[in-house]
Design goal:
213 residues; 4-stranded antiparallel sheet; 8 helices; 4 strands; 43% helix; Nitroreductase-like
């Protein structure tokens, strides 16, 4: 099993970049992928409902089928794994399970009993558009944490929005309450891959106390 590199947080956020060319000889064990997902799911989410769901694609035949769904992006077949990130618009249905675990972790049962019924009703009556928005926002949070956790372990990633949601849903028989958020390939960069990138100066994207055009 690959060990964590021990690099500091600031090195991770500065060195992470989206990699589209991967060494196809590199594999990642199922156990390490599970550990990576455990670290990713420490991310925050609305009411701690954790609406993220994952399909981890490592099988070469499934990778080949996923390739055209992902607009023939070669990283889908060359990377060690591609993680399909889904957002559950009915995540509130697991509220009891989640908050029972929270009680085991130390939350006062009285607080759980007072909060959970109100919270479940709020999400149950939420509009479909709002539920989708919540799932997408929380999906973005867990995706970024996954990519940083991967980099800390010495792996490279790339998030992908270029895929057919309809074909993905059809192939994996994804139910209606789960919405595709993105694909994330994970592996080791091929030699010579990746180019330097730049970010806009913070002054060009930040206003103070009012929006400046």
């Amino acid at each position: 099993m690959t060990q964590k590199t021990g690099v500091d947080f600031y090195s991770v956020i500065r060195e992470r970049q989206s990699i589209r060319s991967y060494d196809p000889s590199v594999t990642i064990t199922e156990e390490e992928l599970k550990e990576l997902l455990r670290e990713a799911t420490l991310a925050p989410s609305s009411s701690n409902l954790q609406p993220w769901r994952f399909i981890v694609v490592t099988d070469s035949a499934v990778k080949a089928d996923l390739l055209p769904i992902a607009n023939n992006q070669k990283q889908v077949v060359d990377a060690a794994a591609t993680i399909i990130l889904l957002g559950d618009t009915e995540a509130y249905k697991r509220a009891d399970e989640i908050y029972d675990l929270s009680v085991e972790a130390g939350m006062p049962k009285e607080a759980r009993d007072a909060y959970v019924p109100r919270m479940k009703e709020y999400y149950r009556t939420m509009s479909p558009e709002k539920a989708r928005s919540v799932a997408l926002i929380d999906g973005g949070l867990v995706a970024m944490q996954l990519m940083l956790a991967a980099k800390a372990r010495g792996y490279d990633t790339v998030p992908m929005g270029g895929f057919s949601p309809e074909k993905l849903i059809e192939y994996f028989q994804i139910p209606a309450h789960l919405i595709p958020v993105m694909l994330i390939s994970v592996g080791k960069a091929a030699a010579g891959s990746g180019y330097p990138t730049a970010r806009l100066p913070i002054e060009k994207v930040t206003s103070w106390n009012k929006l400046e055009q």
